[in-house]
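To assess whether the prediction recovers the assembly geometry, we first specified each molecular entity separately, as shown.
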Amino acid sequence: MVFRLKVVLWLGALAPAVWLGTAFYLDMFGTSAVGVSAFGPGLDVTGAAGAKLLTTPTLGANPIEKLTHVTGMTTLVLLLITLSVTPIRRLTGWNRVIKLRRPLGLFAFFYAFSHFSIWAGLDQTLVWSWMLEDIVERPYITLGFVGLVILIPLAITSTTGWIRRLGKRWTLLHRGIYVAATLGVIHFYWLVKADVRLPILFAVILGLLMSARVVFSLQKRRKISPSKISPSKISPKGDARPLNP
Amino acid sequence: MIIRTRKPSDVPSSEITPEDVYMNRRRFIRDASAGAAALAFAPSVLGASVLGTPERGSRQQIPARFQNMKTELDEDLNPYSDVTGYNNFYEFGTGKEDPARNAGDFKPKPWTVRVGGLVDKPGEYQLEDFIGPSNVEDRVYRMRCVEAWSVVVPWRGFPLSDVINRVEPTGDAKFVEFKTIVRPEEMPGQNTGVLDWPYTEGLRMDEAMNPLTLMTTGLYGMDLPNQNGAPLRLITPWKYGFKGVKSIVSMNFVEDMPLNTWWVQNRREYGFYANVNPEVDHPRWTQARERRLGELRRRETLMFNGYTEQVQSMYEGMDLTRWI
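The predicted structure of the complete assembly is given in tokenized form:
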């Protein structure tokens, strides 16, 4: 079951990257019925072409923006799915689901890093003064950047060796994902102009996932309050990995 | 020269030749020119052909005279697909590809514009009432969105001053207020509360009378597609794109500054004047640079979007950091 889920996870997590790659290829080398159009086949509009818009991958009129948005959105979705692993495990008692957490988190980092690279390389064309100005003066970019920086050590220390080496500190360090995901959602909220429905939805989901953790930790504290054992050390079925985050 | 005025003798043949005859003749030209275009515009990374069939199903072809049109700063036009496939029109959704996707059910004909307020000749005007035999022009303008992207578009329309002269505002009229039509059944975005409908915009009377200000009925020599604000929209090229209220159904001449929609939405970020100004940043992003669609490296944004000469006298003595 976990194996099958892992297959689904890989396919699902790679899908946005594959879609973007296909769109890029078609925009560059595909020819539409119209004859020539580099960016934007499928962008001839109305009627039957409307359906085509949905089905033919294209980066559209503003390819850099599309790349940025798709990778950013995917990062947030994957971060939220990563954060749902522990609540699912607690609610269902299905411990092996934890095996999905590392690949999920690493995919989230992969998209976050791509998102940053596209912004730096393509959007800002590596003009350091522009980038620095944005990171310092634009709060939403500041938050996004800090979120990415927080994720870097988490990605590096995701190996079994690092988990063993860091022990209890690993759990503490990896709580950084709470901060990174929160910054990511605010980053999204602050960049939209008026339509805040999606950022709000993400915030609500994040809020639920975080409250679940608060509830779990309160329950646990009540159960084993006399002992001084840190709850994070206990893991049913002797799983080497800590429960949180 | 910034305004490309079509000479009266330069009426496109489509306007005089019966359509079926015209179409048969054009079909040959279209097929021939598609081949020529394929050779002339080999796919490049960030360029695209200007020519092409604009709408599947419609047999119209972009007239060849748009092939080498440029702005007065020698900038190329953005392709039809950019202009009609990527824009903001929140009535059809908040994504920039939503208008092209969702505007298909909108019915821009027939069209009535209600003119009211401080005018001597108020009334319900048909769109055709404003279009005379010689006042429609093609004009190539830069369009700079407040979101820091831009395009170059060959609009078609007539000066707003023509309308104003015709309806004769009284001396008390200081502003003109425009409203977009409300048709939630055809405009799905209006079923959401993302903005306060109807979309409202306004101009000061001198801005409205400025020769650059264009009541726009078309682009690329053809009628406006629904997603671009059919059948009648405003274009003020020295202002951010959101001033360009679309699918206009009412013009009201008033004494007090109208409350424009984006100002109501967030007055800290969007003003009434909305003049393009690289020195005044949006609170959340820089306005010093912009991405011209189709280009990789960002451009420096020009004061008044490059139309300083034509408009700056209207703002003399005004603090443009305050009147955003």
